[in-house]
Amino acid sequence: MRRITEGRGEKMGQRALAFLLLLPWLMYDSRAGFPNQISIGGVFLRSTVQEHSVFRFAVQLYNTNQNVTEKPFHLHYNVDNLEQSDSFSVTHAFCSQFSRGVYAIFGFYDQRSVNTLLSFSGALHTSFITPSQPAEADTNFLLQLRPALKGVVLSMITHYKWERFVYLYDTDRGFSLLQSVMEAAVVNDWRVTVRSVGNVADVLEYRRIVEEMERREEKLFIIDCEEERINALLEQVHTPPHDP
Ligand SMILES: *[C@@H]1O[C@H](CO)[C@@H](O)[C@H](O)[C@H]1NC(C)=O
């Protein structure tokens, strides 16, 4: 009988001790709650100077809001500007952000950096928030601000009743969109001329492609390319020929 009581007493003592040890942590926890300053990261490419300004402006706008309901915590940000989007620079930027303990990273990717960025965000469980073109990536840590293009492009083609057009593309990303367009083309009996311009190095080649399409009386184009290429292509289309 005595032994049992002693045993109980011992156990209760242990519990009390455990609770006492836990108490400071509990008090600390309820006092601290959600941190009142949150660190986020920014990763910008050289070509996204304007977007960088918009980001800084938006954070400043948020931080100067006096309404506590709308601004429950202060945002602190670190930005890495990438000269190049090769995997070395991207890896370095992501890891330096991560080591600063950011909650999430806002940024842009392009064809060269998308895989590296997304595999890091997936592996390190750090959300990547992006207004870049949607990527077909299988990760839970990617938050895309833009909807997928597929629905928009198909609706546009249907709305304007395009039945014959040229589809120019340059990236792997373009493949899934191209696939949806081709599937719809079979169903709707559209006539689509598909050309990859991914390997075009000489800008005059764009002019030759467009001239060739003109001869075939193709008037409508869908261009699914990286921004730089679209600019180069449109420049060629708009500039009159040099030779008389
Ligand atoms: C703070 O923001 C909330 C949500 O937008 C709004 O309902 C409330 O009226 C605002 N308070 C003040 C004092 O402006």
Automatic annotation (TrEMBL):
Pfam families: ANF_receptor
Keyword S-adenosyl-L-methionine in record: no
InterPro entries registered for this protein in UniProt: ANF_lig-bd_rcpt, Peripla_BP_I
Gene3D superfamilies for this protein: 3.40.50.2300
Keywords carried by this UniProt record: Membrane, Receptor, Signal, Transmembrane, Transmembrane helix
Residues covered by the Receptor ligand binding region domain: 52-238
One GO location term (cellular component): membrane
This protein's name: Glutamate receptor 3a
Main location: membrane
Subcellular location: Membrane
Signal peptide feature range: 1-32
Keyword Plastid: no
